[in-house]
Amino acid sequence: QQQQQQQQASGPSGMGFEFLVRKLCVDESLGMDVRNAGEGLLVVTGLFLDGAVSRANAEASARMGVALQLGDLIHRVNAVAGSAELMVAEAKRAPQLLVSASRPVATRAAHR
Question: Is the model's pLDDT at 104 over the cut of 70?
Answer without folding.
Answer: yes
